[in-house]
């Protein structure tokens, strides 16, 4: 009689478990984030979102009109969607998502078989790596932490771009205002030169005084030429940050006074920055990933395979039997990998401390710059400029009537012009300080605390406001 080759119920159960293990490797995890959370975070922090723009494309965000001049908000909205360097960084999110998906995949089983040729019976052996089931949760945790680290790093890069655009916008606006002031100065110098010429014609002054006035006009024109080049340079930088195509018309920015800020408490701002700064969160996630990598390094020596062996003609016909194959960790227990993982964890912890120290420095410096610029602007606008303007008017009237010396007119006019230049500088400094301060804290200061940040999930073992979150 021929041997019975039908599979027994136990053999069917083994094959069913094997198929279940194979199918489980086809289940893909869903990414914990997508591109949308980056835009949501930027909207919560800056009131501007990030639009998806393809390579070599330029998209004008809604409510942005360049014909009437570009405002600070319009420049920021355009830059977040069209700055090529920032869009290139956003591609890292897709890479991190791919790593997250890859981390959830199980190792493929290995099948070895002998073909039933000639007198050889059909035999096959299936090896299923069992350590993949043990390491899969750890690898998913690492990839998820890396994804969060990348996402928070991109938000920080977005805040840095917003800061740079605001500073560039202030630079362009003050350059245009200084050029316009230079044109006004030329008119003032020309008016003084005309008066000196009239007095020279009447024989009231010497030729030397009249020549000095004409030289002042030439110097003012030369200075205006330099300031015009400053406008070109500032306009080019702002257009580059905004991702403007070269065919677009030149940008025109208006220097507007910054909105008033509430009274600044440095200690409260530092605490808020610890909780809100994306780079601080990214550092926390980096520590969490390094800690999980250390756990994986301590298990990396595991090599355990589940074995299913079968042959065609056994004593009981078609025979299938389970087994196990594993490495004996006598020599290699990944000692070097563990040491490296420990060092990487230590490095991540020190890097987090360095970022916390940098946050304190950033907030303190930006607060001091804002306070100094605000006080200087108030002094120049309320005290210095009015007094110098009055002195200039008195000197001009006296010179026109023939009672004042030209040197006095030149001195008072120079002081008045210098005060107006200083006012422009302080307004720009105030804009720059506000941009740096909001980046240092991680949000717009005029909008109040953002509730979105408090809903962000925290990595294991992160301390916020003195509380340990597990």
Structure characterization notes:
The structure is a single chain. By secondary structure, the protein is of the alpha+beta class. Helices cover 64% and strands 8% of the residues. The strands form two sheets. The protein has a four-stranded antiparallel beta sheet with strand order 1-2-3-4. Helix 5 runs antiparallel to helix 6. It has helices at residues 9-24, 35-46, 72-82, 84-103, 131-201, 207-242, 266-276, 278-299, 335-400, 406-441; strands at 110-114, 123-129, 304-314, 317-326, 462-464, 467-469. The protein has ten helices and six strands. The chain is elongated, with a radius of gyration of 36 Å. It has a single domain (9-469), classed as Outer membrane efflux proteins (OEP) (Up-down Bundle).
Explain briefly what this protein structure is.
By secondary structure, the chain is an alpha+beta fold. It has a single domain, classed as Outer membrane efflux proteins (OEP), CATH 1.20.1600.
* Helicity, as a percent range: 55-70%
| Strand order across the largest sheet | 1-2-3-4
Q: What is the CATH superfamily label? A: Outer membrane efflux proteins (OEP)
Specify the CATH architecture: Up-down Bundle
User: What structural class should be given to the helix and strand makeup?
Assistant: alpha+beta
Stated plainly, the CATH topology is called Outer membrane efflux proteins (OEP)
Number of self-contained structural domains: 1
Arithmetic mean pLDDT: 81
The CA-CA distance between the termini, in Å, is 68 Å
Task: Please write the string of helix (H) and strand (E) elements.
Answer: HHHHEEHHHHEEHHEE
Uncertain segments are 1-5, 25-33, 450-455, 461-470
């Amino acid at each position: 009689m021929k041997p019975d080759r039908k599979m027994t119920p136990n053999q069917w159960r083994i094959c069913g478990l094997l198929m279940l293990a194979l199918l489980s490797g086809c289940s893909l995890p869903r990414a914990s984030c997508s591109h949308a959370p980056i835009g949501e975070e930027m909207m919560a922090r800056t009131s501007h979102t990030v639009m998806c723009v393809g390579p070599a494309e330029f998209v004008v965000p809604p409510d942005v009109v360049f014909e009437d001049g570009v405002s600070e908000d319009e420049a920021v909205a355009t830059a977040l969607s069209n700055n090529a360097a920032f869009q290139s960084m956003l591609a890292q999110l897709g890479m991190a998502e791919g790593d997250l998906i890859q981390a959830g995949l199980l190792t493929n089983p290995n099948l070895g078989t002998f073909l039933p040729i000639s007198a050889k019976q059909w035999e096959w052996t299936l090896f299923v790596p069992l350590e993949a089931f043990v390491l899969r949760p750890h690898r998913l945790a690492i990839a998820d932490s890396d994804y969060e680290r990348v996402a928070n790093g991109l938000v920080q890069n977005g805040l840095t771009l917003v800061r740079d655009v605001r500073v560039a916008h202030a630079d362009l606006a003050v350059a245009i205002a200084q050029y316009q002031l230079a044109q006004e100065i030329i008119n003032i110098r020309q008016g003084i030169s005309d008066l000196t010429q009239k007095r020279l014609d009447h024989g009231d002054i010497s030729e030397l005084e009249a020549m000095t006035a004409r030289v002042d006009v030439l110097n003012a024109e030369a200075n205006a030429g330099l300031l015009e080049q400053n406008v070109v340079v500032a306009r080019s930088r702002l257009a580059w940050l905004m991702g403007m195509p070269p065919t677009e018309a030149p940008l025109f920015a208006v220097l507007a006074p910054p909105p008033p800020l509430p009274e600044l408490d440095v200690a409260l701002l530092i605490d808020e920055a610890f909780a809100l700064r994306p780079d601080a969160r990214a550092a926390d996630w980096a520590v969490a990933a390094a800690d999980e990598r250390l756990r994986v390094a301590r298990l990396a020596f595991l090599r355990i395979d589940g074995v299913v062996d079968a042959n065609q003609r056994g004593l009981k016909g078609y025979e299938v039997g389970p087994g196990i194959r594993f490495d004996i960790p006598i020599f290699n227990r990944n000692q070097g990998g563990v040491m490296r993982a420990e060092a990487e964890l230590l490095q991540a912890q020190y890097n987090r401390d360095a970022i916390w120290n940098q946050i304190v420095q950033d907030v303190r410096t930006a607060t001091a710059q804002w306070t100094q610029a605000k006080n200087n602007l108030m002094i120049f606008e309320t005290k210095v400029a009015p007094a110098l303007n009055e002195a200039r008017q008195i000197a001009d009237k006296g010179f026109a009537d023939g009672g004042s010396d030209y040197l006095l007119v030149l001195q008072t006019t120079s002081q008045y012009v210098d005060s107006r230049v200083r006012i422009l500088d302080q307004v720009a400094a105030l804009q720059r300080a506000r941009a740096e301060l909001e980046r240092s804290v991680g949000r717009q200061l005029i909008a109040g605390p953002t509730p979105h940040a408090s809903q962000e999930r925290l990595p294991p073992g992160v301390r916020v406001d003195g509380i340990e979150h597990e």
